[in-house]
Amino acid sequence: MTVEFEELDYRRTPLGELVLRRRTEPALGVVLYEVKLGDEFLMSSLFTAGEIALARLGLAGLGDGPLDVVVGGLGLGYTARAVLDHPGVRSLVVVEALAEVIDWHRRGLVPLGAGLCADPRCALRNGDFFALVGSPGIDARDPGRRLHAILVDIDHSPRHVLHPSHAALYGRQGLHRLASHLHPGGAFALWSNDPPDADFRVELAAVFATHEAHVVTFHNPLQGAASRRRDAANTVYVARTARARR
């Protein structure tokens, strides 16, 4: 029998009540995994195009590797999975503030969890990504190590953050700190649920050698009648540090 709705996990966290649930969407006949934090929906396995694009756009142009990558925010694991699908990736550290989310993956409660945990290149670390950006090394087990890419999917957007302490990252000083962890020619990529933000692009331009804002569109089968359906969209910002002079 197909389970129409099941709460797989419920935890009280410093950020609010965290819920992982699995349900059947009757309009589509598919099983969905959804995450709520307090009253907000954080993610759904139905909408993963932006998370996958974050990895693909962030790693594009970095060459064949070997590449060392950090992802801020684990979620359902779609960004991490897309990073590991890149043949040049040598190591991936995923920093997740909620230990409960890492536990979902280790217990196999989410579809991609077993594969991520079994990949020897992938390490899931419980920690505050924003605090680590201000420390000597984002990978706390290897301080000072520079990275080829830092990919972030934590807040809704630079303007709509999950916690006030996150906001500093998206200003000039925070971006300078983040860029200091990258190799010359390294990439910072950020997922956002909002349209491209002109003010944030000014901050990126002040810190990085180049930057782009990619609008990633995808079909939303739950939005309105078939005759009126519109594509949904996320934004992926990709900024790169200056390449080393030869």
What value does the average pLDDT take?
A: 92
Overall outline: globular
**H/E series, N to C?**
EEEEHEHEHHEHEHEHEE
* Largest sheet, strands/sense/barrel: 7 strands, mixed
The number of helices is: 7
- Unreliable runs: none
Q: Which homologous superfamily in CATH is the superfamily?
A: Vaccinia Virus protein VP39
- Widest sheet: strand ordering: 7-6-5-8-9-11-10
How far apart are the first and last residues' alpha carbons, in Å? 64 Å
In percent terms, what proportion of residues is strand? 35-45%
Please state the structural category: alpha/beta
CATH class: Alpha Beta
Per CATH, the architecture is 3-Layer(aba) Sandwich
Helix content: 10-25%
Rg computed from alpha carbons, rounded to a whole number of angstroms: 18 Å
Number of spatially distinct domains? 1
Beta-strand segment tally: 11
